[in-house]
Amino acid sequence: MDLDLSPQLPKKLYGGNGGSYYAWSSSELPMLRQGNIGAAKLALEKNGFALPRYSDSSKVAYVLQGSGVAGIVLPEKEEKVVAIKKGDALALPFGVVTWWYNKEDPELVVLFLGDTSKAHKAGEFTDFFLTGSNGIFTGFSTEFVGRAWDLEEKDVKTLVGKQSENGIVKLDGSISLPEPKPDHRKGMALNCEEAPLDVDIKGGGRVVVLNTNNLPLVGEVGLGADLVRLDGSAMCSPGFSCDSALQVTYIVRGSGRVQVVGVDGKRVLETTVKAGNLFIVPRFFVVSKIADPDGMEWFSIITTPNPIFTHLAGSSSVWKALSPTVLQAAFNVDSGVEQLFRSKRTADAIFFPPPK
């Protein structure tokens, strides 16, 4: 099985004074297409406004940098105006309309990872804009717009003619967008940097898992996610998703080494990853990471809302569960070697601090 799992950076699709929109191409990262996964990134400068749009894919959004405001309208629901900041994760189901605004930060950056199994193009998001030079108003005739919204022809022409930019605009301060409401965050966003830790290993790393318990909307999206912070030179245990899920990983900070082993024990990826890289681990393939001295942080989505992982090292690994004689026979070693192997990594951990 020949797979190209090489980490990739995104390419700019459009933008202007207000910011830019980037996406990973399924032609350059074929596993996106094969796994029906999309990945994109929105970067808004101060006063940058991402125009209202909806997508052909359900997504998880993760704020990589800065703070701002997100407007979210679920189907047949009222608008939620949510304050967002670095570390926030939001689940965006099918049919949701969103807008994004950077009111005062130098730059607001939001990562989008999602399921493209029902999208127009496998491995890529397609957004449909409500306004802008490529919005729905520009496609309908003046007659249709006038009749649908009960407007006179001159008013229709004003609406359409004023929309000179697409996707992202920069506001001049003459319009005050809605202020976020604290109660609108409930159930819409979870800050992964402040949430209770699911795993905390001293000198190793920490994990926050995003699932239906702490953000119920991920059930509608059909995806789970996690934020992992690996300490300097620490290792993340080799492991795999045992419920046939794909794992899509974006390196948020730092750098480190990654190895992925697939069918027939073949190492299909051995590389160094750094901030901004995206890579995909196929179903059932085993992955392990070692951080560089400054540590490494990554955000991943898993293609199931409540993922289950099997780790191959530590006291809860499958090796510890197998009978001693089974290991002796399988490894073709004597009992002394088997006991040595079994006696190591006795702690229930998925992260291992660097050797002393």
From TrEMBL:
SUPFAM superfamilies according to UniProt: RmlC-like cupins
Entry-linked InterPro entries: 11S_seedstore_pln, Cupin_1, RmlC-like_jellyroll, RmlC_Cupin_sf, Seed_Storage-Functional
GO molecular function, one term: nutrient reservoir activity
Record's GO cellular component terms: endoplasmic reticulum; protein storage vacuole
Residue span, Cupin type-1 domain: 3-157, 195-339
CDD domains membership: cupin_11S_legumin_C (cd02243), cupin_11S_legumin_N (cd02242)
Keyword Ribosomal protein in annotation: no
SMART domains, per the entry: Cupin_1 (SM00835)
Keywords from the named record: Disulfide bond, Seed storage protein, Storage protein
Homology family: Belongs to the 11S seed storage protein (globulins) family.
PANTHER family: OS01G0976200 PROTEIN (PTHR31189:SF62), OS03G0336100 PROTEIN-RELATED (PTHR31189)
Protein name: Cupin type-1 domain-containing protein
